[in-house]
Amino acid sequence: MNWLLKKVEKKLNDLSIMRKLTLLYVLCVLVPLVLTDGVVLTIILQGERAEQKYEMENVASAVQSDLTYTFEEAAKMANSLYIDRSINEFLEKRYESGVDYFKASAGVMEKTFYEISSGTQNTNVIMYSDNETIVNGNHFHQISSVKEEEWYQTLQYSGGDILLIFYYIGEAAPTSTTPRKVSVIRKLDYYKDLPSEKLVKIDLDYGTIVRRLNDMKFNMPVYLCKGNQILFSNVGYSGNRTQFSYLPDKIKIDKKIYEREFNIYGSEMRILVMPPENTVFTRMEQYTPLILFLLSVNILLPLILARMINRSFTVRLFELGHAFEQIDAESIKEIEEIQGHDEISGLMRNYNRMVVRFRELIKTVYIDRLERQKIDMARQNAELLALHSQINPHFLFNVLESIRMHSVLKGEEETASMIERLAVLERQNVQWRSDYVTISEELQFIEAYLELQKYRFGNKLSYEIEVEKECERYVLPKLTLVTFVENACVHGAEKKAMSCWIYVRIYRKNDMLCIEVEDTGDGMEEDAVEAFLYKMRTCSIEELMGNKHVGMMNACLRLRMSTDERAEFELESEKGVGTYILIKVPLEVLKQE
Question: Which residues fall within 8 angstroms of residue 421, CB to CB, at 6 or more apart?
Fold first, then answer.
């Protein structure tokens, strides 16, 4: 806990006073205000939604009950006809003439049909049979006259005995007063000894159902649908003369709609109830001016006060900061006018006392420190010159010996070429106007040196130099890389009877300049490798005096000094196999020409 408090305190110390006051205002005024109002509004909205959902459920239940009652009444009538044997026998019987049929139908209608339909209004009952002696008309028809009708094919396709169906006859019956049809259809196959195909269709009055739905006076839109097809609605989708409409896309994706599904006589029905338009949000709009006024009082006034307090702080702190900015190497000014008596004014007075004391100390402390810095710089330059003088030139003597032996043994006129390369080496070695050269210049020196060594070793020595183009302009201390190459040549190729390769690779990787010097020479023992690597990483000027491998140690020390001790060295070697040296230097400490 203390760790967290310290971390928060550290973050606050990095903020300006204006930001601190703003943070205080946000966390102590604005956030509590928003949270409090948000909780209150959430409670109101949740209550509103719960009440709204309950009301929508009641509406859906009322619609479902009313429609179910209507369809059940029609189904009861169909079931009465289904078990009425006299009706089934009438539809099954074959008649000699139309006169016989009409007499029989009159008796059936008088004795049975009107008893079944008594008390049922706004319905039309039609029975069908495949008996060809029945004359089409009134309440009885032959099935052959309706086999192409949509409702008949739907009944056959469903495979059920009773079906509730909604369909539109439209152009097929332009004289019909109600092109939209709602029918309960029942197969009359109760008596197995009467095998003819028979069925009854009870047409309900579509307009009556719509009026009953509107008479319920719901304060929210209601849709009775089959799939996405609107069958009944109280918002203008129930016109008798038009085809059934489909749900608009905005209603399909509205997540606030309450939906209830139920099945009645083979028809999957959906009741969709939309929330009312008069919600808590619409009521809040009436109080918009008052809400805006309260928000202004709660937000703007504290903000104005915070800015005034901030100005009281920042003006004087800016003056104090400006005074500190005027400090140079030998002068510092006091604050002339100090206003107020709070902590900031006390700090300004203490600043003036500090100025007086500072002036007394500046001559003795600051000037003496400059003198010490000059002495330190002179000492560092002397150390650098000492390092220059410590570079072991023995490889130049090896080169000269190679030229002499070559001339004696072969008598060839190649001395001029060798001397030209030697001149490159000598010029680089003796010109110390600057201790730094580009990698490109250092590689020219290395190549000249290796070419001269090939005169000495012949085909026994081969080399390969690979460098990324982007690396050539980086600057390194002079004669550092060639020292590693010279070590690989003399202590690698010279001590091995077989042929030897030397590889120099320079590239960039992970924001580091990587330099590889590898040879296939004689190599070193494991103990010697560890001791040599330790010296490369830790050697100093004092340790160079009189030690072996002074050239290598000198190069390592100069690389470390020129890179603020950030140069890294890796060494791998195996006796009889060769030696591998990797030097890594961060690109950020390197300069480019």
Answer: 448, 449, 451, 452
526/573 Cα distance (integer angstroms): 7
Q: What is the mean pLDDT of residues 151-155?
A: 88
Residue with tokens 């060798």, as numbered in its chain: 418
Per residue in 239-258, is it b (16+ CB within 10 Å) or e — as a string?
eeeeebbebeeebeeeeebb
From the CB of residue 164, how many other CB atoms can be counted at a distance below 10 Å?
A: 20
d(CA 365, CA 371): 10
pLDDT band at 175 (very low <50, low <70, confident <90, very high): very low
Please name every residue paired with 569 in a beta bridge, in sequence order, or none if there are none. Answer: 583
CATH topology of domain 49-281: Beta-Lactamase (3.30.450)
CB 500 within 8 A of CB 519: yes
Q: Which CATH number does 391-589 carry? A: 3.30.565.10
Pairing mode, strands 512-519 and 500-509 = antiparallel
Where are any strands of DSSP class E within 426-511?
436-438, 461-467, 475-477, 500-509
Domain boundaries, the chain: 2-48, 49-281, 287-375, 391-589
Question: Partners of 108 in the beta sheet?
Answer: none
Distance CA 483, CA 554 (A): 9
Q: pTM of the entire structure?
A: 0.46
